[in-house]
Amino acid sequence: MKLALLLAALLATPAAAQSYRDRLPEDEVVYFLLPDRFENGDTANDRGGLKGDRLVTGFDPTHKGFYHGGDLKGLTRRLDYVEALGATAIWVGPIFRNKPVQGPKGQESAGYHGYWVTDFTRVDPHLGTDAEFKALVDAAHARGIKVYMDIIVNHTADVIQYRECGDCAYRSRADYPYARKGGVAGDAINDGFAGDSVQTAQNFAKLTRSDYAYTPFVPAAEKDVKVPAWLNDPIYYHNRGNSTFAGESSTMGDFAGLDDVATENPRVIKGMIEIFGGWIDRFGIDGFRIDTARHVNPEFWTAFVPAIEARARANHIPNFHIFGEVADPDPAALARHTRVDKLPTVLDFAFARAVNAVSAGEGTDKLATVFAADPLYEGGAATALRLPTFIGNHDQGRAAYFIRKALPDASPSELLARTRLAHAMLLLLRGVPTIYSGDEQGFIGDGDDQSAREGMFASKTADYNDNLLLGTDKTNAVANFDTGHPLFREIAKLSKLRRAHPALTRGRQVLRFASDKPGLFAVSRFDPGTGAEILIAFNSSATAWSGNVEVDPRSGAFTALTGTCPAAPAAPGSLTLSVPAFGYAVCAAGKPQ
After folding, report:
1. How far apart, in whole angstroms, are the C-alpha atoms of residue 157 and residue 430?
2. Sign of the alpha-carbon dihedral angle for 424, 426, 430, 432
């Protein structure tokens, strides 16, 4: 009897009382930010402890390609804001020590974004200290907010140079084999090396020369700049010139000149596991977003992922979320990396393209096509529930930008309404909604990359400050942490709704209606425990939509969670709805009869 009472008490425990560690990846609402562009909590670290002009320190808040001063202290001080938005996890852009400035003369920019790593073991001093990162993680955890780190294994900063050239073209294994110096007619080198497909320590011990394609060298001033120290040896890099992002160069070429790590080498695999496992040990973080995951050979991931998951479990982190960046809008290409590479999940670029297209007036069947491919993922629809979904990011650009680009004559009010609809799709459809900082404040941006990386604190960058924002008269020249902004309020409302209903986080999704024209897109999601149905209907048209939508014949009375819903079906299996232009409705049925 006591055991039965105990079990009943546990089952009755509210989700809020459970540890944040108990939440599954699909339970989260993720907020993504670049620390340099979020909030400046300590102006003393703006120059990273360096002295000189911007080409030395990397700091120039007037230029969109340099450090602006945001840091980890600033993020910690703004956790109230993140929590108010309804985010339950923060994906923090890379915080590792970066090469402050690189690039050809006259085209220099800074490592404010975090992807030019030199030291993988410490926080970049522009962003703060290891202790301040620990303080951030602890403060977030105290609120039940998880912290995901953005990590890179594909490349480091551009340190290695080639004797033959500066901006070097890719040289293939066929034309420049490992066994010859500088081409098939060159001197014999690396005797006995059986190629990079034989990924054993014994084989790679025979790869002693790195000058098979080019002659790599490390400038004297940077010979010890990388940490751990083994990363300073060119033998652990591919050294074949710039990737064309096609064929073998996709995994073996330098990413825009960055030093491409030879991830086939067992020493590299072991080293990377120790590097990133160490961050789990030291800080108790909750997940990794993996940059440029598609540009790393699959064998690396099949070794790395299980080791990292084991490290997390050893630290009592049972739901460590790993998601790779595969920048491809084709669901089949995305799914391949979960099947071949065995990545647990990938960022859903297909979802992003479809939502932005539908929100801009294309046929709603574009979304149906994305969801029809869910069985392709390793683990099928269950894995699709865990794919981080997004509609804008720091590389591609913002949702509002894509909608405005497609509809340049749309009024600000129409653009706001369509952007609001896009966020509703993000928060209510399957997957893990990932909000890019600034989107909730109506940021539009001017394009991709640097043009989509406005700061949340007051900007001194003219290229940002002339931007118009949605839903406000403010500009980027002032701080934008307005919890009353219409998009902020909409996201906060939907986040609360999502977290209150397991059907909207863990529930399977069934397509109810889509067409090749703008208008209705509808799905049902089902509570995994009770089987209760929630019908979600979106209208992407500029005119109201009315009609009948299929529902489960066992669903009886309906309640409007948001929008307008009838109290009962018109007939078993059919619900009559009216959805306003750019509106949506969420209609919840009770337990199936």
Report:
1. 36
2. negative
Say how far residue 88 (Cα) sits from the centre of its chain: 15
Question: Quick check: 266 and 297 in contact, CB under 8 A?
Answer: no
**Nearest-5° Cα angle at 453, 62 to 166:** 80
| Residue 321, SS3 per DSSP | strand
Q: What is the pLDDT of residue 592?
A: 87
Give the tokens for residue 67.
Answer: 């450090």
Which tokens belong to 256? 């825009």
Distance CA 419, CA 471 (A): 10
CA distance 112 to 37: 9
Which stretches within 481-586 are classed as H helix?
Answer: 486-500
DSSP 250: H
Count of CB atoms situated within 10 Å of the CB of 276 = 22
Q: How far apart are CA 466 and CA 371, in angstroms?
A: 38
Rg (CA), the chain: 25
* Ordered strands of the 432-436 beta sheet: 345-346, 321-324, 287-290, 146-151, 89-92, 30-33, 432-436, 388-389
How far does the chain reach from its first CA to its final CA, in angstroms?
31
Q: Are residues 302 and 342 in contact, defined by beta-carbon separation less than 8 angstroms?
A: yes
* Helical (H) or strand (E) element with 28: none
As to burial, measured by CB atoms within 10 angstroms (0-12 exposed, 13-18 middle, 19+ buried), residue 555 is: buried
- Residue 214 has φ and ψ, to the nearest 5°, of -125, 175
* Phi then psi dihedrals of residue 163, to 5 deg: -60, -35
Q: How many helices (H) and strands (E) does the chain have?
A: 17, 21
Return d(Cα 59, Cα 471) in angstroms, integer: 31
The residues annotated as belonging to the active site are: 291, 325
Q: Which residues contact 434 (CB under 8 A, 6 or more apart)?
A: 30, 31, 32, 91, 347, 388, 389, 390, 393, 426
Answer yes or no: is pLDDT of 586 > 50: yes
Rounded to whole angstroms, the Cα distance separating 106 from 383 reads 46
Q: What is the pTM of this model?
A: 0.96
What angle separates helix 349-359 from helix 365-372, to the nearest 10 degrees?
170
What are the pLDDT digits (tens) for 81-137? 999 999 999 999 999 999 999 999 999 999 999 999 999 999 999 999 999 999 999
Dihedral sign of CA atoms 105, 110, 116, 122 in order: positive
Contacts of 14 (CB under 8 A, 6+ apart): none
